[in-house]
Structure formats: structure tokens, C-alpha cells
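Session log. Operator J.P. requested a structure for one protein chain; no other inputs attached. Running the standard single-chain path with C-alpha cell output.
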Amino acid sequence: MSTTPDNTSPEEKPSFGFSTRAIHVGQDPEPITGAVTVPVFQTSTFAQDAVGKHSGYEYARTGNPTRTALERAFASLEEASFGVDFSSGLAAEDAILRMLDPGDHVVIGNDAYGGTFRLISKVFGKAGITWSAHDLTDPAALAVSWLDKTKIVWLETPTNPLLNVFDIAAVAKVAHDNGALLVADNTFATPYLQQPLNHGADIVVHSTTKYLGGHSDTVGGFVATNEAQIDTHLRFIQNSVGAVRGPWDVYLTLRGAKTLAVRMDRHLANAAAVVDLLDGHEAVAQVMYPGLASHVGHEIAKKQMSGFGGMVSFRAAGGRDAAIRIIESAELFILAESLGAVESLIEHPGVMTHASAEGSPLEVPDDLVRLSVGIEDEADILADLAQALQAGC
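Structure written below.
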């Protein structure tokens, strides 16, 4: 059986600050040449010392030193014992869901990424997995309506795209009291703002395509956990189905994460300015942002997050047509799916990222606009959004 080096060692536990860990954990200078940056090990196989004896690497699907560096670094950022890098966020989610057996049940929040909903309902549904959507802002109601076959509770916080906030610890208690696992999608918050494992989650999943990579130039996923058995399962599935990335994409993501903290600080500042513009604007019926005191999850966000994120959603006062006009009038904001990168993006979730949820409990309002606020100059962001809003009046 092939092996790869352990993801973490005692010295990699979070003794340094966040940015220091992002730059250094798993990324010591390369021992032969002294290269400061982790090399791109562009190889498919590794020479072995003898039959059945190797240095920890034998075939690149099973392990690659560039990937190991990222896994150690990102596990440290999530304050996790283990971490596994995947070819995409959905590949990471797929590996988690393969822990289930036919007849098992998944609880998903009633606001979640459309791709997650599609994977659970359309793909795993055919494999005999059932699901139900719940308002996870009310853990007590979830406990009352609990189904015995539930094995996983799947939670995003903040959610995509309505930016609801769920109490991770409270939902974790309900799941654990009933023998289930809590999976937390931490893509929107990032480990810079929130570490769900420290609040009781069993598994944390990311689309590293978003904030962790941060530059719209690579696709990837990541799973963190403190449970060795879960880590073993994930690695078995990954190796079995080949859900791995090439080392260049891994390198780009690792490079991007080195600046996560400074980028997030700018995202936070720009998002707060955008919310100030939107709140009370005549073209806007409702602003969705956890940093608003009026947000129903504001106090929970303050408890479990160190900042409120760079994502902002709002409903257009003039309905769907007004929302479309606003979106298509933006110039600096790029009309595109995805999020969490240096450039500002704007989209219509109902038609774009969440079309697969139409007709389901996760269907989103058709007047909804989602903004991924970038790190451009604040004045330029606000000027563009202001002129776009005028089209919606």
C-alpha cells in the first residue's frame, strides 16, 4: 500500500500567527538547492531505492511534494491535524459524501451553493442517498425533526448566496447528539476569519478556487479534519478516483494563500464601504451582509468570526428586471461566476450559480444580485456600483 508523509508534525501546530503560517508551514527551503519557494515537482513518478522501498512518494496521483506542502500549510491555517487537496471544491465534497451508504440521509441548509445541492440531490440521490433542507438558524427545530438515518449535516456559514449565518457550535451539538457528522463549508469566511473545527465541526471543506487561491487562475478544493479515520477515507477515495490536481495548479494556490490575510483585510474594508452605499439606496430593497447590525445572524457572526467577509448580496427594489439592468450596467464589476479573487465580480444567482436549485427549497429570489467585492481602489468600486444602481432605479 502506498504512503505519503504525514500532513502535520507537532511543530506545525498554530504557534505562529496566521500570516506566518501561511508563508512558512510546510514550506521550508528546498534542501538540495536552498530554493526559498516550494518547487513545482512536475513529475508523474518517483524513483524507488528498492522494491517496495521509497522516500514517501511513488506515483503522483498518490502524492506529490508540492501538494504535500499545500496540505500542511492549509491544515495549519484551519488549525487542523490533517488536510487533503483536491482537484476542485466539488471533488472534495464528493469524497466526503462517499462516506455515506445507500439509505443514509443528509441534512443541508436551505441556502447553499447550487453545485453542492446538485451533487447531493442529483448525483448521490441516484445512489440511494436522501436529503432534506432545513433552516439551520433554528438548531432546536432540527433536533425535533431529526431523521434517524441522518449521517451528515452540511452547513455553509456565511451561506451562498443569501449570506445567512449559522451557529456552528449549536448545529454541531445537534448533529453529535444524534450520532452524525457536521461538515462546514468555510469558503466564504476563509480560515482567516473563521475556523469551524474549533467550534465543533468534524470536517471543513473549501473551494480553494475562491479566496484561498485568490486570483481566478486555478480551480481546487481542500478538506481539513482532526480525525485520522476521516483523513484515511479521503485519501483512499482521492487515490482511487484520481481527484488530484497537477503540481502547477497546486503551486499557484499555495502562492496565492501567502497573501490571504492582507487580501482579506482589503476585501473587508471594501465590502463595508459597498454596504454603506447599498444600505438605504432607492434601488435596493434589502442588503444581505453579516456586518450589518440589522442582520439576523450578526451576533452569531461576531461570536465565531473575526470579520464579516467580502461577499455582499442585495435584492433590487425594482424586481428581476431591475436586478438584470444593474448587473449589466456594471463596468468595473465583471459579470462572471465564481468569487473571492482580487477583481470585483457581479452575478445573478438565480440564472447563473444557483440555477440548479430552481423549484427546490433552495431556490433563490429572482431579484437577487451577488457581489464579490475585490481589492481595487475603494473609490473606483463605489463609483461603478453607484452608476450601475442608477440603472435599477
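Operator note: The chain has two domains: 10-257, 261-391.
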